């Protein structure tokens, strides 16, 4: 077979199509395209809603996981701030957090029906009895003691 | 009205939301027959060709906004239709086999199809085409039946013009050889 015989065959095909197949195909395809486009838009909207809901749930989850862990520490911080009146900058910054000044521990009044403890001694008279040298020595010990320093901070 | 004018009209209508559907109808009515026959030559069965034709135009409807007019409209359509056919072969369990086996199945599909004419030489000619490797078959069909230029085919198949010329040359040789061997 040569090129001339190819030309003899031409463009003919051994296939046929049902009668009227090509008529109305455009409208049918457009209707199907509209339907699928609508379904696609609905799918995208649902997907966006699911993503938004997941993000909100994740944000709430994170909030509830982190916030309760901090809550017990807050009164401690408040008390520490209260004990350091000289640190004014920090205290001013956090003052709104401290809603209520912690109550000073009240010393109960000595009961009159019970006799005072004979063994218990006030510190004032004790210090009065110390000599100047002993007082200086006591002050030096106080300064040198690292545990005493940290406990007051 | 020339082909270029029709394409320009379709393109401008597709890009305006208010005339999009009118442009789509014009596009389908202009190109439904050549695209259908291109698909039919590749997949043989009318039912499959009808489904693929619809999928092709639905893709066109969906991605009409992404067509920038940098290639000819019909090369864009042929490209979508060709990709749909290749995807059909890959995704279908029936057709997803090696190319030699698939070619035999396509020949069998043609022989068993009620819609084909009884002209023996036409059937032999199609058998010869269906026995070609996929790329050669595509190039031969687009060049021989659709009379597209090699430049247009290179845009459709994403291949160089020289490669396409070589493919077409080998395809012709193989078809001639097949017809000689199967001459009655």
Protein architecture, described:
Chain A has helices spanning 3-9, 25-70, 73-83, 88-94, 123-129, 132-144, 146-152. Chain A is 64% helix and 0% strand. Chain A starts with a helix and ends with a helix. Chain B folds into 2 domains: 1-96, Rna Polymerase Sigma Factor, Chain: A, CATH 1.10.1740; 98-184, Arc Repressor Mutant, subunit A. In chain B, 75% of the residues lie in helices and 0% in strands. Chain B is built from 9 helices and no strands. Chain B is globular, with a radius of gyration of 17 Å. Chain A binds chain B through residues 1-2, 6, 9, 11-18, 21-22, 25-30, 32-33, 36-37, 40, and chain B through 21, 24-25, 28-29, 32-33, 36-37, 40-41, 44, 46, 50, 53-54, 57-58, 61-62, 110, 113, 115-119, 121-123, 125-126, 144-145, 172, 175-176, 179-180, 183.
Which features characterize this protein?
heterodimer; A: 153 residues; mainly alpha; 64% helix; B: 184 residues; Rna Polymerase Sigma Factor, Chain: A; Arc Repressor Mutant, subunit A; 2 domains; 9 helices; 75% helix; globular
Q: What is the CA-based Rg of chain B, rounded?
A: 17 Å
Biggest β-sheet of chain A: count, sense, barrel?
Answer: none
Question: What's the CATH H-level homologous superfamily of the largest domain in chain B?
Answer: RNA polymerase sigma factor, region 2, helix turn helix motif
Could you tell me how far the N terminus lies from the C terminus of chain A, measured between alpha carbons in angstroms?
Answer: 108 Å
Overall body shape of chain A: rod-shaped
Taken together, the total number of domains of chain B comes to: 2
Largest interface: A-B, 25 and 40 residues
Helix content of chain B: over 70%
* CATH architecture annotation name of the largest domain in chain B: Orthogonal Bundle
Q: For this entry, what is the oligomeric state of its chains?
A: heterodimer
Fill in the CATH topology of the largest domain in chain B: Rna Polymerase Sigma Factor, Chain: A
Strand content of chain A: under 5%
Question: What percentage of amino acids of chain B are in beta strands?
Answer: under 5%
